[in-house]
Design a protein that fits this description.
Elements (H helix, E strand, L loop, with lengths): L1 H29 L1 H5 L3 H16 L4 H20 L5 H11 L3 E3 L6 H13 L5 E5 L2 H17 L4 E3 L6 H9 L2 E5 H11 L15 E5 L1 H7 L5 E6 L5 H11 L3 E3 L2 H9 L10 E4 L4 E4 L1 H11 L9 H15 L7 E4 L2 E4 L17 H8 L8 E7 L1 H5 L4 E6 L6 H8 L3 E3 L9 E2 L3 E3 L2 H17 L4 E5 L2 H13 L5 E3 L4 H9 L7 E5 L20 E5 L6 H8 L9 E8 L3 H5 L2 H11 L10 H48 L4 H20 L10 H12 L13 H23 L1 H34 L9 H30 L18 E3 L65
Parallel strand pairs: 1-13, 1-14, 2-4, 2-5, 3-4, 5-13, 7-8, 15-21, 16-21, 17-19, 17-20, 18-19, 20-21
Antiparallel strand pairs: 6-12, 6-22, 8-9, 10-11
Helix pairs in contact: 1-4, 1-5, 3-4, 4-6, 4-7, 5-6, 6-7, 11-14, 11-15, 14-15, 24-28, 24-29, 25-27, 25-29, 27-28, 28-29
The chain binds adenosine-5'-diphosphate and magnesium ion.
The site of adenosine-5'-diphosphate has 14 residues, from helix 6.
């Protein structure tokens, strides 16, 4: 009932929307004659005219009617297709940043040309997103002539393209490509160390074809670039051994002052000093020398920033962190003890390499797992576009999700011709065997009428079983498994010809039009036989929609059994008892509205469960998304920065402020304040002497200003000494190095936190809330430690030749993973029965046989201990990998 009301409300609302758009369509049509009278040259000149108008302050909406009329005219001339009125309507919907639901065969590929052209005029780039490489290429080649006629450039991204080719494609006015390529390119662009390596421009306007597949089905799992957590864990053990051979001295500030007053060299005979009160250590000259000698390095070389840092951490681990107080060792793992509550914090790791240092100290295995190097969900990727639109035959059932997650309205565009396909009611059998027998009978009887049959299955496995049965009975047919997109597109394009029987999984041959053969329409058109319900009604509708395109005659029927996955898991019991009551015999079916309803209910349950999973994934990603934005923005500033002084000094001021607060907070008690330690620390950090500022009674604010002023002088001197160009390069290099390595570690720690948070069994607390809270703290800590290192290295760095910049990410072997989304078959943990997934779409180059491999660039499996890609937050082995 509610459904009925919703439908009615939606129906009238949709009608209202369409009515409002109608005048625009009429206006486009009214311009037709006038535009048709233009010569080719005059038509081409329109692009420049439009651009001029835009430049003179006309809005893009002002020029829409004429621009659409121009595209329509060009379509006629170069593709021999005139955009139907409903296609113009669809084009307006897309331009307005909404989803146009248009049935299969309505010509959505052509519809997109209207808003694509219009929006590309502004020169900011338009992306057309398809589900696989084959379709990206096909659509680029198919529609390209329209844009090219009008003087726009068109590019296409293909899986195996090199960065330079990608760059070129992205520089075009219009770029076709898959969601995976666009998403991964975005991530990669945020790992480069020079702007010239970036491939994308800004994310301006995207039209997503088959938008439900991409923004809903594939959005169940994030895109992940992963790599080893460490290039090598060797260094931790080596440093631990090195530090063990050193001599440290615990010293208090008072002892330092006393020693100074008496002229005693308190560093003598020691390699490092330990300040327990401030939980700090520093190396003496002798210690530094030993270090350089031991590892045969020079500390002035920026390549050893990292090593030195880990040396300090190893030292801290040794002297400042106590087992069973700060941490415990349990089952070969170092687990943090919360300093306030004494609780164990599994999953939480000390940052900055300290955790690894403790693992080395305790002689336990340093986890060298794979970690996330960069990740984004499709939700968060596509939400970055200034304007987003989509098109598909099946969006309405998911309208709420589109609205909630993407703020995308769905507008149902009427078909060009009336839809006359007949959908027979479902028939249902007790066993799968009986069902398949009936399917085969139906195929044969339809075939005997001279009609083509398209059979849909939910998995490759089932396609093959059905195929075997047909073969046994000597019936010629073709099978598609979504393995070879191009070849399968060709096969499915002939599925409407007389006598053809085509078996296909739901995903196979998507985007290909099925045109009826001669005389087929008179015999009733294409008959679609479906062998099982999919978990989402949408997918069933897609299959049905294969028949009856553009007003063709056609029919469809679903065959089901109580043994089907969906029936078994959701609500098969009632049906069972119903069938028992009816006392059904072997081979007998029922066709009852109750059945259809029960199935629909089951599907709705799975749909909403899947929505929950996606929301859950997104809630976790949203936490990181904000952090990712901050870090990527910071990186962008550094990459594009011309002059870092201001930026670096912002960082330095923050640092100094924090240190002043820490050491000489005027609100603290006298004995808590420690000017001596403060200046000592500053000198260690910057190698600059601030003795002149001591005991002058400065207010904290003035003291900060004085210090910053003096650092400014040193900075300028250094800039002069090193030379502008090189100095700039050095700073950029340091900043990126520091940001990337801290961020990388942070991602690692987030992975680990997310895994561990579910293991914590305290009270009724919501793990997501805990996760947010701690992720926030960890991020803060990370930012502070970035600032701290910047302060240190800007002043300590000596000249080094301008070479190739070291990238934190580059040396790591990277994998690009978009794990298969977990379909319903997972519920029963029978992976062999998973429906083929849309991610199985990577490609080889044209000409070669297009073997499609799963979308895993280096064919890596998800590690058993990694977080499960489904977003549950559990380890893979305890979740989908079980
Ligand atoms: P969809 O993506 O909506 O399923 P396609 O873009 O694949 O549909 O187009 C389906 C078929 O309709 C194609 O063969 C295309 O050539 C044809 N077509 C689309 N628009 C027109 C038109 N305006 N005039 C003639 N044929 C058209
Ligand atoms: Mg299409």
């Amino acid at each position: 009932m509610l459904n009925f009301i919703l439908k009615k409300v939606f129906g009238t609302q949709n009608a209202r929307t369409l009515k409002k758009l109608q005048p625009i369509v009429d206006e486009v049509s009214s311009l037709e004659e006038q535009v048709a009278a233009l010569s080719d040259e005059e038509l081409k000149a329109k692009t420049q005219e439009f651009r001029t108008s835009l430049g003179q302050g006309m809005s893009i909406d002002d020029i829409l009617p004429e621009a659409f009329a121009v595209v329509r005219e060009v379509g006629k001339r170069v593709l021999n297709m005139r955009h139907f009125d409903v296609q113009i309507l669809g084009g307006v919907v897309l331009h307005q940043g909404k989803i146009a639901e248009m049935a299969t065969g309505e010509g959505k590929t052509l519809v997109a040309t209207l808003p694509v052209y219009l929006n590309a005029l502004a020169g900011q780039g338009v992306h057309v997103v398809t589900v696989n490489d084959y379709l990206a290429r096909r659509d680029r080649n198919w529609m390209g002539p329209i844009y090219e006629f009008l003087g726009l450039t068109v590019g296409v991204i293909q899986h195996d393209m090199a960065p330079e080719e990608r760059q070129q494609a992205y520089r075009c006015d219009i770029t076709y490509g898959t969601n995976n390529e666009f998403g991964f390119d975005y991530l990669r662009d945020n790992m480069v160390v020079d702007i010239s390596q970036r491939v994308q421009r800004s994310l301006n306007y995207a039209i997503v074809d088959e938008v439900d597949s991409i923004l809903i089905d594939e959005a169940r799992t994030p895109l992940i670039i992963s790599g080893p957590a460490e290039e090598s864990t060797d260094k931790y053990y080596k440093l631990e051994r090195f530090v063990r051979g050193l001599k440290g001295r615990k010293i208090t500030d008072k002892e330092i002052i006393d020693a100074k007053n008496q002229g005693i060299d308190y560093e003598k005979g020691y390699d490092y000093l330990v300040d327990e009160k401030h939980r700090n250590i520093w190396f003496t000259e002798s210690g530094e020398k030993k270090f350089e000698g031991h590892f045969s390095i020079s500390l002035e070389d920026p390549r050893y920033i990292d090593l030195k840092h880990h040396r300090d951490q190893a030292t801290k681990a040794r002297d400042l962190f106590k087992v069973d107080v700060d941490y415990v060792v349990k089952d070969g793992e170092v687990i943090i003890v919360d300093e306030f509550t004494g609780r164990l914090m599994p999953g939480r790791r000390f940052s900055d390499g300290l955790h690894q240092a403790l693992e080395a100290k305790e002689g336990v295995k340093i986890e060298r797992e794979n970690q996330t190097l960069a990740t984004v969900t499709f939700q968060n990727y596509f939400r970055m576009y200034k304007k987003l639109a989509g098109m598909t035959g099946t969006a309405e059932t998911e309208a709420i999700e589109f609205e909630k997650i993407y703020k995308l309205d769905v507008v149902v565009v009427p078909t060009n011709r009336k839809l006359i396909r007949h959908n027979y009611s479902d028939v249902i059998y007790k066993t799968e065997r009986e069902k398949f027998n009936a399917v085969v009978d139906e195929i044969i009887s339809t075939h005997n009428e001279g009609r083509p049959v398209l059979v849909g299955t939910i998995s490759i496995d089932k396609s093959e079983r059905l195929s075997a049965t047909l073969r046994k009975r000597g019936i010629v047919h073709s099978v598609l498994n979504a393995k070879y997109h191009e070849k399968e597109a060709e096969i499915i394009s002939r599925a409407g010809e007389e006598g053809n029987i085509t078996i296909s999984t739901n995903m196979a041959g998507r985007g290909t039009d099925i045109v009826l053969g001669e005389g087929v329409a008179a015999r009733g058109g294409l008959h679609v036989v479906a062998t099982e319900r999919h978990e989402a009604r949408r997918i069933d509708n897609q299959l049905r929609g294969r028949s009856g395109r553009q007003g063709d005659p056609g029919s469809s029927r679903f065959f089901l059994s109580l043994e089907d996955e969906l029936m078994r898991i959701f609500g098969g019991d009632k049906l069972h008892s119903l069938m028992d009551r009816l006392g059904m015999e072997e081979g007998q079916d029922i066709q009852h509205p109750f059945v259809t309803k029960a199935i629909e209910t089951a599907q709705k349950r799975v749909e909403s469960r899947n929505f929950e999973i996606r929301k859950h994934l997104l809630e976790y990603d949203d936490v990181m998304n904000r952090q990712r934005e901050i870090i990527y923005e910071e990186r962008r500033k550094v990459l594009e920065g011309e002059n870092f002084k201001e930026h670096i000094f912002e960082i330095i001021e923050d640092c100094i402020e924090r240190l002043i607060l820490l050491y000489i907070n005027p609100d603290a008690r006298e004995e808590e304040r420690d000017e001596e330690a403060f200046f000592g620390y500053l000198r260690k950090k910057t190698l600059i002497d601030f003795d002149g500022l001591k005991s002058k009674g400065f207010s904290p604010e003035d003291l900060k200003d004085e210090i910053v002023k003096s650092l400014g002088t040193s900075y300028e001197a250094k800039a002069e000494h090193v030379g502008g160009d090189l100095f700039h390069f050095m700073q950029k290099s340091i900043l990126l190095q520091i940001i990337d390595s801290k961020w990388k570690e942070h991602l690692h720690n987030l992975d680990s936190l997310r895994e561990g948070i579910n293991l914590r069994a305290y009270g009724q607390r919501n793990p997501l809330v805990e996760y947010k809270h701690e992720a926030f703290d960890m991020f803060d800590e990370m930012i502070e430690s970035i600032k701290d290192e910047v302060l240190e290295f800007v002043f300590k760095l000596e000249m080094h030749a301008k070479g190739k910049m070291q990238s934190v990410f580059q040396p790591l072997e990277q994998q690009f993973v978009h794990p298969d989304h977990a379909p319903i078959a997972d519920l029963s943990r029978r992976p062999a029965e998973r429906p083929s997934s849309p991610q199985q779409d990577s490609f080889r180059r044209e000409g070669k046989e297009e073997r499609i491999e799963p979308f895993k660039r280096t064919t890596r499996k998800v590690g058993r201990n990694e977080p499960c890609p489904c977003g549950s937050g559990k380890k893979y082995k305890k979740c989908c990998g079980a």
